[in-house]
Design goal:
The chain has 258 residues and is an all-alpha fold. The protein is built from 8 helices and no strands.
Length: 258
C-alpha cells in the first residue's frame, strides 16, 4: 500500500478520534452539570466553529473527515488489506462503504459550514423527499444495519482482538498497552450502546412511517438521561471519550497489512 494512502488513513483516524472525544466531553459536561451539551457529530462541528479561529479548526476537521471517508471507501472498493470476498468479508466491506458515505457527508458539511450557511427556510426534512410508502422499508433497513453495527461493537469488545490492528512492537511500556486495551473496550461498548439506541429510533420511525422519530446521538443521550439518569449518560460519554483517544492512538500505531 502506498505511503500516501496510509497518511490519509492516519489523518482520518485522528479526525474521527477528535470528533468522538469532543462528543463525549460535551455530553459528560452536560451529565455532570458543567454546562456542556449532549451533541452528536454535527453538533461537535458546529461547536468547533464557535471557538476562536473556528473556521480554521473546522476546515482542518473537515479535511480530516474527508480523509477518513476516502480511506473507508478505498477499503470497501479496493480491499487494500485483503479482507477477502467471502460473505462475512463482503458484509464488512459494505459496512466500510456506508461508514465512508457517512463521514463524507460530515466532511462536506464541515467545509460547507465555512463557505456558506444552509438556508433556514423552505427546505424541510430530507426524508420528506422520499415517497412515504418507501419510508418504512428504508428505515427498517437502516435500523437493521445499525443494530448489526451495535452488536459488532459488543462482539469486538468481548473478543478483545482489536489490538491486532496496532503496531505495538514500538510501544515498550506495558501500562501504555493496557491503557490502549481498556480504552478500546470502553469505547466500543459505549459506541454499541449509542448505536443500538439510534437503531431503535429508526425502528420506531419505520413502525410509524414518521420522520419525526428519526433521531441521532444527541437524542440517544437524552433517552439515556430520561430512562436511567445522568450517571449512565456520564458513563457512556466517558466511553466515547475513551473511544476518541483510542482512535487518536490508532492514527499513530495502526498496522497496515499491505
Amino acid at each position: 500500500m502506498k505511503e500516501k494512502i496510509k497518511k490519509i488513513a492516519r489523518a482520518g483516524y485522528a479526525s474521527k478520534g477528535v470528533v468522538y472525544g469532543l462528543t463525549g466531553i460535551l455530553a459528560f459536561g452536560a451529565a455532570a452539570g458543567l454546562g456542556g451539551s449532549s451533541e452528536g457529530k454535527v453538533g461537535v462541528l458546529e461547536y468547533l466553529q464557535k471557538q476562536p479561529m473556528g473556521n480554521v479548526l473546522l476546515g482542518i476537521m473537515g479535511v480530516g473527515l474527508l480523509c477518513y471517508a476516502f480511506w473507508r471507501l478505498f477499503q470497501s472498493i479496493k480491499d487494500p488489506e485483503n479482507i477477502g470476498s467471502e460473505a462475512k468479508d463482503i458484509a464488512k466491506r459494505i459496512g466500510f462503504f456506508f461508514s465512508g458515505i457517512v463521514y463524507l457527508g460530515l466532511g462536506v458539511f464541515a467545509i460547507y459550514k465555512i463557505i456558506g450557511s444552509p438556508s433556514s427556510g423552505g427546505g424541510g426534512s430530507k426524508a420528506q423527499m422520499i415517497p412515504t410508502e418507501y419510508l418504512p422499508y428504508i428505515f427498517y433497513a437502516i435500523a437493521a444495519g445499525l443494530a448489526i453495527k451495535s452488536i459488532f461493537q459488543f462482539v469486538k469488545a468481548y473478543k478483545g482482538n482489536f489490538l491486532s490492528k496496532f503496531q505495538l512492537g514500538s510501544v515498550s511500556d506495558a501500562k501504555t498497552v493496557k491503557t490502549i486495551k481498556w480504552m478500546g473496550y470502553s469505547g466500543m461498548i459505549a459506541r454499541g450502546v449509542v448505536t443500538g439506541i439510534v437503531s431503535f429510533f429508526f425502528y420506531k420511525a419505520a413502525d410509524t412511517a414518521s420522520t419525526q422519530n428519526i433521531k441521532g446521538t444527541s437524542e440517544a443521550f437524552n433517552f439515556l438521561r430520561e430512562s436511567s439518569g445522568p450517571w449512565l449518560v456520564g458513563l457512556v460519554a466517558f466511553g466515547l471519550i475513551c473511544y476518541g483517544g483510542y482512535m487518536i492512538i490508532m492514527a499513530k500505531y495502526r498496522r497496515f497489512k499491505a
